[in-house]
Amino acid sequence: MTFEALLAGADSGRLAIPGSWGQGRATFGGLVAGLAYQRMQGVVADDRPLRALQVAFVGPVTVDASLSIEATLLREGRAASQVEARIVQDGEVRLVALGSFGGERESSVQVAAQPAPEAPAPEDCQPLDYIPGVTPEFTQHIEMRWAFGNLPFSGQASREMGGWMRFREPGDAMTDAHVIALVDAWPPAVLQHVKQPVPASSMSWSLELVHPRPSMAPDEPLLYRNWIDQAGGGYGHTHAGIWNRQGELVALSRQTVTVFG
Predict the structure, then answer these.
(1) What does the longest C-alpha to C-alpha distance in the chain come to?
(2) How many CA within 13 A on the CB side of residue 125?
(3) Which residues, in sequence order, are CB contacts of 110 under 8 Å at separation 6+?
(4) Are strands 235-243 and 249-259 parallel, antiparallel or unpaired?
(5) Which residues of the chain have pLDDT under 70?
(6) What's the confidence (pLDDT) of residue 253?
(7) pLDDT value of residue 60
């Protein structure tokens, strides 16, 4: 099932996610966050794009099982709206998200974004191929090519990880939901520090989207660079930037991850 088909299911508020979007014992986190956003935008005026998204991964969303997505408009002001979304499965809350949507305001403050880091062209970067039983199931839908750092479980002590990413089957447009899903596709940067496969997962995630949105074609690869701020005691704290092919800032991301090893 394509990402676009799943977004249509999110609009209805109830769906089941097929196993091809799995990630270990759970569903790919970027997908469920993107579905929550899709439901949230349905209760907000069209002229108020998403500015910030905070996600708490309360429990694993399982594949091939029915789930519901609820969105509640908490407050609507002159220019900003606050929306909460919950994904519920088997009577339990599995994800809670808070979205901050805001229209344009008059302001004299104009500060250009930091430029994108230099990186090899996507075709010159090592791809992460989809290998059944080895790589996460969802990687059959999302292509990643390494430009920074090392592969997971390589035992390399780099602070950065990232590269190019895009959908293998692009839709008609690169929406905010697509960006949300792509940003969470990369494994935690801390995993390159260990020498053998160990469990890891996102505990919380904060994402900020830049508007006006830079131009992005549906099949355009986006550049992702993640940096480890600190890790220890089974947790890691990281931040990342995301740019389009022209080097324009698209989004900023921060995560708290757990790592069992």
Answers:
(1) 53
(2) 25
(3) none
(4) antiparallel
(5) none
(6) 97
(7) 93
